DNA sequence: ATAGGGTTAG
């Protein structure tokens, strides 16, 4: 639990604790020993499964999903894919990872991928920019009679938005609505983000209005993305009117909001006005970060007034 | 029980 660079989440800890509480004293000693031991060796997952086996605790699909997640977080993508293949009963290369049950033995033990396991892998494929394979995964799920859930769709929509494929993202959003799944505010943020990046500011504004009408509360990240779109397209008036709307909606702007606005003003050659925003954010108790200063310094630099750049 | 989620510079 303590090894590695990934902090366990509360729920994970609860899981381990509940596991722990089911053990007798000797077994607890073994687990503690295992944990201590894991700090000194690399193959912690193998060890963990090994001790589980010794203790007669059978891993479930959740155990393996948790392991897949851990591998993804640590960038051990190959391992993640292999465990998933093993869950599907596909023969995997008999190497060190298969030693403790990552093999087609899993199917015999009744370990089959769930929607959650698929979601893990679909997300991983998007992180690796392997969108078409992610699509195949969804089809594979559906062929097996599994139903993609809201999380599956959020992964897909966000993935396509990040790669700039707005069309595909909107098609998926329609599909979600058709299926009666309620998109979340994060889904809409992804869509506003992609519209803003693709200069579709009218559509982005319309979408925000539609969302608000639906009763979904606008939030900071969503509005920041929209403000950035307007700044990038030189519509500073609209950007600032959104800032005022934020205040009205009691959504408190943060350093990202102000950095975005400062950048917009710098881009328009209004470095002094951008500098005023630095004071304004300080007055409002928002702490400028390194991006705030970089933005102003490079704004001055572009104009060649190095003295002012140093004053920032 | 495990899984997803967003914004700013260069």
TrEMBL record:
Keyword Repeat: yes
Keyword Repeat attached: yes
PPR repeats: 60-94, 114-148, 149-183, 184-218, 219-253, 254-288
Protein name: Putative tetratricopeptide-like helical domain-containing protein
Domain of life: Eukaryota
Position of the signal peptide: none
InterPro entries named in the record: PPR/CCM1_RNA-binding, PPR_rpt, TPR-like_helical_dom_sf
Keywords: Repeat
Organism from which the protein derives: Rosa chinensis (China rose)
PANTHER family xref list: OS05G0275100 PROTEIN, TETRATRICOPEPTIDE REPEAT (TPR)-LIKE SUPERFAMILY PROTEIN-RELATED
